[in-house]
Design brief:
Elements lengths: L1 H5 L3 H13 L6 H13 L4 H10 L13 E2 L2 H11 L3 E2 L12 H5 L22 H4 L12 H16 L13 E2 L3 H5 L4 H12 L9 H9 L10 H10 L1 H4 E2 L1
Antiparallel strand pairs: 1-4, 2-3
Helix pairs in contact: 2-3, 2-4, 3-4, 8-12
Length: about 240
């Protein structure tokens, strides 16, 4: 173990892989070097390495091609369920497979087909990213078919389960949208809540008019019915799916 930890290739390789999972798919060499230095100085203390990754100055820098990563499907859906405070129905503590992991995402917990994860950390997709030589590992398992499936599950969650009067089935996860409903008639409060749950506190300026349009499309007495569309739009927007 000591030989492996102290091998000159170990620190930069592990640092690169961890940065790709936590911060960006395309870390610049200087960022990797700073993290690798902590790995070497601490003898491979992963707690200190993760701290160095998350507290590096680059994390708070302006978004760029070198400070972004795509949410992999199962983590995107997990984020949505947590943002909506979902719970199993019927008073159950767990639900067997409400997220339809394998069918919808090609992923399930502890189900990677090999020790190398669900996708290669060095995957470069075709198109503009490929022409720029940029990695986008998660796109190796994401295609239009999978995107449609995940979007359908999200739509069902925010429309059907979000407004059912009872949650008797333990085979499903049910969101609690009461926080959103309680401020449905107050647009600034509602949009602030959505911003905090999905966009780190601020609605991106280029999609803000879309939210306002969805809210305005409902009459004053029907504002709660705008919530499902707004939540769905927040989930499928590129600002949510791409972490910057």
């Amino acid at each position: 173990m000591n030989l492996l930890v102290n091998h000159p290739c170990t620190a930069p390789n592990i640092s690169t892989l961890l940065i790709k999972r936590f911060v960006t798919s395309n870390p610049e060499p200087a960022y990797v070097q700073r993290v690798a230095r902590v790995f070497k100085q601490t003898g491979g203390n992963l707690g200190q390495v993760i701290k160095a990754i998350l507290l590096d100055d680059v994390v708070l820098s302006e978004p760029s091609l070198y400070r972004a990563k795509l949410r992999e499907p199962i983590l995107a859906m997990t984020y949505l369920y947590r943002a909506l405070d979902c719970r199993p129905g019927g008073g159950a503590d767990v639900t067997p497979n409400a997220m339809l992991y394998q069918e919808s995402f090609g992923q399930y917990p502890l189900g990677a087909p090999s020790v190398f994860n669900f996708y290669s950390p060095d995957f470069i997709p075709s198109g503009e990213l490929g022409e720029l030589g940029l990695f986008a590992p998660e796109l190796e398992i994401i295609d239009w078919n999978q995107t449609v499936k995940m979007s359908n599950i999200a739509w069902k969650l925010v429309t059907e389960n979000g407004y059912k009067t009872s949650s008797n089935s333990s085979a499903e996860l049910y969101p609690d949208v009461s926080d959103f409903v309680s401020v449905a008639s107050d647009y600034p409060e509602l949009i602030s809540l959505i911003a905090n749950r999905f966009f780190d506190g601020e609605i991106p300026s280029d999609i803000a008019p879309r939210f306002e349009g969805l809210w305005n499309a409902k009459s004053d007495n029907n504002k709660p019915y705008s919530i499902s569309a707004m939540l769905y739009f927040a989930f499928v927007s590129h600002h949510f799916m791409v972490e910057e």
